[in-house]
Design brief:
The chain is of the alpha/beta class. Helices cover 34% and strands 20% of the residues. It is built from five helices and six strands. It has a six-stranded mixed beta sheet with strand order 2-1-3-4-5-6, sandwiched between helices. Strand 1, helix 1 and strand 2 form a beta-alpha-beta unit. Helix 1 packs parallel to helix 4. The longest helix has 11 residues. It is globular. The N and C termini lie far apart (27 Å). The model has no long low-confidence stretch (mean pLDDT 93).
Length: 119
């Protein structure tokens, strides 16, 4: 298993942090900050610290695609319960690590996984 450096957006259930740490990942959760710094600061922080960003928010994909914000991979999880977020994140990190470190944006819903590679 590859250890990933991960930044969890504040919208991700806090319990996902423990699941990912227990799986061996280096995890920072935005929810541990005194206040949410906003999407622009979050995507910059993830890039500066070489962390894969995990979120529920589609705005990060838009920042990466339309504003060409640099990133180290983004996982967007759709339509999963809060308690599934850690397990789903870990599965995607393990299966698609090489795509993520090459700045892929991966959207995971209940029925499919979409991978958008950096152009």
């Amino acid at each position: 298993m590859k250890q990933s450096k991960v930044l969890l957006d504040s919208c991700i259930w806090s319990g996902a942090k423990k699941v990912l740490i227990d799986a061996g990942h280096d995890v920072v959760w935005v929810g541990d900050s005194p206040k949410d710094p906003g999407d622009d600061a979050i995507i910059r922080l993830a890039f500066n610290e070489k962390r894969i960003l995990i979120t529920l928010d589609k705005d990060f994909g838009e920042l990466a695609i339309f504003r060409n914000e640099p990133h180290c991979g983004i996982i967007r999880i759709v339509d999963h319960s809060a308690t599934e977020l850690g397990r789903v994140s870990n599965r995607v990190l393990e299966k698609y690590f090489s795509e993520l470190i090459n700045a892929a944006i991966i959207t995971v819903d209940r029925h499919k996984i979409r991978i958008r590679m950096k152009e």
